[in-house]
Amino acid sequence: MHLLFGDGMQRAIPNYEEWNRYKDVNVPWKEYDEYNLNGCRRILDLSDLFEILDKPVQRREFKLSRLVILLLFKILFGLSYRSIASATRDLELYRLLGLKRAPCYKTIQNTMKYLNEEILSKINQFLVPDQIKLAGIDSSGMKTHRKGAWVIVHFNKTQRKRDFKKIHIFVDLLSKKIMYCVMTNGTSSDSKQLKKILRKCNWLKIKIILGDKGYDTRECFNEIKNFGATPGIRVRKNASTKSKGSPSRRKAVITQKKDLEKWKEKGRI
Fold this sequence. Notes:
Layout: E1 2-4, E2 10-12, H1 29-45, H2 47-50, H3 64-77, H4 81-90, H5 93-96, H6 105-109, H7 117-127, E3 131-143, H8 147-155, E4 164-172, E5 177-185, H9 190-200, E6 205-211, H10 218-227, E7 230-233, H11 247-258, H12 260-266
Parallel strand pairs: 3-6, 6-7
Antiparallel strand pairs: 1-2, 3-4, 4-5
Helix pairs in contact: 1-3, 3-4, 9-10, 11-12
C-alpha cells in the first residue's frame, strides 16, 4: 500500500497483518532451568577455593570469597553489575552468604582486580567439563585505542601506525565456555599459538578440535593428534595429498577432496 504525502513523496505503509514468524521458537525451559541450577551448585561448591582470598585476615566489611560468588552469579545469568546488586538486595541473597548487608554494584565490580591468573584457572577447570566432544579455536583482531580519529579531526593529520592486538580463543562449542585465551600482537600467526594453548589445557579430554584454514599446517595437525583429539581443520584448496611428516593431515586432505560435505557431517554433533 502506498500513499502520496504533501511533500510529493510516495511512501509505503507496511501491512503488519501479513507479517508471520518464519519459524517457531520453542525454548526447553525445564532444561534451561536445570542448567542454571546446576551452574549455581557448581559455583557454591567453589566457596572453599575462594577462602584463599580472605587470607591474611583483613578488616573488610565484605569478604572477597562471598563477593566472588556474586560475581560468578552475574556471569552465569548474564546480568549487569547493577542488576546483580539489586537481586542481592531484593532477594536477600546477602543473608545466605553470611553478609550483614547487600554490597553495591561497584564493590562487586572491583572484586575482579583481586582475581589472579591462578585462581581464574582453577575456577575455569572446575566449571568446564573434563570431557568435551567438540571444541573450536579461532582468533580475532581488535584495536587497543581510538586516538586515531581524534588526531585526524583535531590536528588534521592521518595516523600512519595503527595498534592492533589479536585474541586467540579456545572454546567449548557445546557449552559455549571459553577454556583458554591469549592476547598477542596483531601480526602473530594463528598456527603458532595452537601449541601454547593446548599445553595450557592438558587437563582436558577433547574428541574433535575445529579450526579454519589458518591452522592448516603439519605442526597443527600433529599437535592436535598428540593431544589425543581428532583434527577438524579445513585444508586449503591447493593442499597436496602427500603431506609428508603428518599422516593425519594427509588423511584430512584426501577425505575433504573426495567428499567435503561428508567430512563436514563428521564434525557435527
